[in-house]
Amino acid sequence: MIEIEEKHYIGQGKLQKCYIHPDNDNLCLKIKINEQYENPRVNREVKYYKKIQKKHISAPFFAKYYGEVNTNLGVAHIYDLIKDETTNNVSLTMDDYLKMGNSPFSDELFISKLEKLKKLMIKHKIIVRDLMGKNICCKVLKNKSVELIIIDGVGHRDFIPLVEWIHFFTNRKINKIFYKNKLNSMDDHRDWLALYVAKQI
Q1: Is a pLDDT exceeding 80 seen at residue 90?
Q2: Does residue 130 share a domain with residue 100?
Q3: What is the extent of the structural domain holding 41?
Q4: Residues paired with residue 40 on neighbouring β-strands, in sequence order
Q5: Residue 72 is part of a domain; what is its CATH number?
Q6: What H or E segment, with its residue span, contains residue 68?
Q7: pLDDT tens figures, 150-179
Q8: Domain end among 27, 53, 80
Q9: Is the dihedral of CA 146, 193, 7, 3 positive or negative?
Q10: Which of 34, 56, 95, 125 could form an SS bridge with 134, CB 3.0 to 4.6 Å?
């Protein structure tokens, strides 16, 4: 059993808390906030991660999944911990940068990186239902640019998964997600994300 301490805590969403793996600081442990509650969304996401791992994508744009492990805080799911190449610190999210008054990265850069991300999602037929700034890490590269890595919100609830088989449906689905989540304008996404967060409180 892995022993997690408070010093390993990174942050949390609505359903899970995130910790640095005590034995490997390149890995992240996600643990349900309420271990007794069987949340279908978490289970669905893990199932989808297991499916897309089989694609063996050479240039991943999402955190890899490595299975589960028992900890003193409950069962944890293991993922890549995204860290900046320049500092080896845990990467900030796109939302973190969008909230900065003096962000080192421009809105135009994020728009271009999101376009690249969209093309990769369509090419590999990867659906990210909750695609938003707080679920995208910005890995700062040695050349001081950024690479967008999805860390949460993958999957879909389509009963018949045509989006996983047919390019037309994949393209339409992903473009709808970008439009719905206002990812074609960073100002619009800031406003949308603030409203989204307010609804969760």
Answers
A1: yes
A2: yes
A3: 6-80
A4: none
A5: 3.30.200
A6: strand 65-71
A7: 999 898 888 888 898 999 999 999 999 999
A8: 80
A9: negative
A10: 95
**pLDDT of amino acid 194:** 86
Task: Using alpha carbons, select from 184, 172, 26 the residue that is nearest to residue 107.
Answer: 184
Distance between CA atoms of 120 and 114, rounded to whole angstroms?
10
| Distance in angstroms (rounded) separating the CA atoms of residues 180 and 131 | 10
Structure-block tokens of residue 148: 């967008």
Q: Are residue 150 and residue 53 in the same domain, yes or no?
A: no
Residues 76 and 103 in one domain: no
Alpha-carbon torsion (77, 2, 90, 60), positive or negative:
negative
- Show which of 80, 110, 142 is a domain's final residue: 80
User: Confidence band (pLDDT; 50, 70, 90) for 195?
Assistant: confident
Q: Which residues pair with 152 in a beta bridge?
A: none
Among residues 52, 4, 50, the alpha carbon closest in space to that of 27 is found at 4
Nearest of 175, 181, 114 to residue 146 by alpha carbon: 114
Identify whether residues 107 and 186 lie together within a single domain: yes
**pTM attached to this predicted model:** 0.92
Structure confidence by residue, pLDDT tens digits, 129-149:
899 999 999 999 999 899 999
68 in a domain, yes or no? Answer: yes
Q: Which residue has the tokens 């301490």?
A: 5
